[in-house]
Amino acid sequence: MIEIKDVYKKYENSSYPALDHINLTINDGELITVLGTSGCGKTTLIKAINKLHDIDSGEIIIDHKNINDVDGVALRRTIGYVIQQVGLFPHMTIAENIATIPELLKWEKDRINKRVDELLEMIDLPKEYKNRYPRELSGGQQQRVGLVRALAADPHIVLLDEPFGAIDAITREHLQDELIRIHKNGNKIFIFVTHDLNEAFKLGDKVIIMDKGRVEQFDTPDHIKAHPATPFVKKLLGVAYD
Amino acid sequence: MIKYWIEHYDKFMVGLVEHLQLTVITVFISIIISLLITLLIRKYKRVQIIVNGIFSGLYSIPSLALFAMLIPFTGLGLETAVIVLVIYNQYILVRTNIAGLDQVDSHIIEAAKGMGMTDFQILYKVQFPLALPIIFGGIRLATISTISIGTIAAGIGAGGLGRLLFEGLRQMNQAKVVGGTILVIILSISIGRIFEIIENNLKKNFGLKS
């Protein structure tokens, strides 16, 4: 469970806070999407959760522990993190890439190898790909490897920052379906940031709609569509569903 | 001239071997020191300006002058030569080390950090390997520079191919001068070529275009 309590963060040179007194609770097993335009604070929010950003005030409590009291590096090894550009290590094979966190956690070789095979199967990538390099894979394949690399140590929480943003529409749909399938198979919390309303509503058990650092609405897609809470949300929906 | 080369083949070989020795020792020490300085700069960003200033200043001092300044402290011979050459190399190596590390894609670094690598782990697992082609380029330049400036080291008793050049000039022996020069050129080009091959292999393996 993730509890975000009155979290506030403002950068010196901006006219509005990046995170303006955010209050939310995310429960185990939920796939939450965070929807908003550039600068709304959605990326800052997830980076605050894994301490890539610090916050000015408020608390973030993961599984009843205030992350302030946890070492950032140790915390990040227990939280999956996927970014749009993937960031696969070009000098490592696919297997080595996927094995990164297990190696950091000093797993035994056998356990790591088994896990790599498992994960390749999960994303339907043939075993030969183990020893290939990222540059030999397509964009969609790289993104799937990036996803699975984040899942390697079986983290309880996975943060995804617009992971499919740079992918073509057809592949994106496949990846979305795959993500839903992978999420269904466990009790993990996925927090998925996107600026695409359709994607947010398709994937999210609940959607956090953000604008200018504030949460405009946090509810299931159906409830949001039926009862938009603010003028901003109404406008957002009007744009998509006209 | 060629007759002289064949008859006095041993002189040239001694010079070559001494020169290689000087070069290898110098480059080896230069690399280690440049890496230490680079790590220092990475940790304390403000040091960079001071370090750059010091080494560009030192680099602009003509080699003979720098040798002369050091001789009262470290005497004539190999030691002084190596110290001066190592100092010169820092000007090149520290800059290319930093440039190499900085050109690594920031998204790769972000992914590494987000996965829970410590700053040091990011450096040696990710950044350094990916910077290697450029770092090697710097080492290549430093090596060639060492081979060239190293010829002057003979003037202060460090031996090497420079000895043939100086002797040849003093004795008006053209065979020595030309022969020595040709060997320096061959040494330079062949070592440069070997480094180029290594660099291209590194670039290929790390997915960067060569």
Automatic annotation (TrEMBL), chain A:
Gene3D superfamilies hit by this protein: P-loop containing nucleotide triphosphate hydrolases (3.40.50.300)
SMART domains: AAA (SM00382)
EC number, as in UniProt: 7.6.2.9
The entry's keywords: ATP-binding, Nucleotide-binding, Transport
Broad EC category: translocase
Domain ABC transporter stretches: 2-237
GO molecular function: ABC-type quaternary ammonium compound transporting activity; ATP binding; ATP hydrolysis activity
Database matches in InterPro entries: AAA+_ATPase, ABC_transporter-like_ATP-bd, ABC_transporter-like_CS, P-loop_NTPase
Record carries keyword Ubl conjugation: no
Family named by the database record: Belongs to the ABC transporter superfamily.
Name of the featured protein: ABC-type quaternary amine transporter
TrEMBL record, chain B:
Cited InterPro entries: ABC_transp_perm/SBD, MetI-like, MetI-like_sf
Domain ABC transmembrane type-1: 16-195
UniProt entry keywords in alphabetical sequence: Membrane, Transmembrane, Transmembrane helix, Transport
Subcellular location: Cell membrane; Membrane
One Pfam entry name: BPD_transp_1
GO BP of this protein: glycine betaine transport; transmembrane transport
Gene3D superfamilies linked to this entry: MetI-like
PANTHER family noted in UniProt: GLYCINE BETAINE/L-PROLINE TRANSPORT SYSTEM PERMEASE PROTEIN PROW (PTHR30177), OSMOPROTECTANT IMPORT PERMEASE PROTEIN OSMW (PTHR30177:SF4)
Family to which this protein belongs: Belongs to the binding-protein-dependent transport system permease family.
Protein name listed in UniProt: Glycine betaine ABC transporter permease component
